[in-house]
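Suppose you are handed a protein chain with no further information: no name, no annotation, nothing but its sequence. What can you learn? This example shows the usual starting point.
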Amino acid sequence: MLLTLSEVSALKAAMAEKGIAVHFHNTCGSQYFTLDEPGEAVKAAIEDYFAARPGAAPVFQDDGMGFYVPDR
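A reasonable first move is to predict its three-dimensional structure. Written in structure tokens, the prediction is:
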């Protein structure tokens, strides 16, 4: 799922309010996000954020340092 720049900005702002740094990477038709720190609380905050958006469920890397949102 490709997020608009407005959606990315909203995500980053919502996570910043929780003290979570989210970095956006946009490459030739795909997007992904990296984090400064992994952790269950970080993962839960991101999952909660996307829970309010039907069809948008983040998929995390095994090390917890990044995620992407697959197509619906």
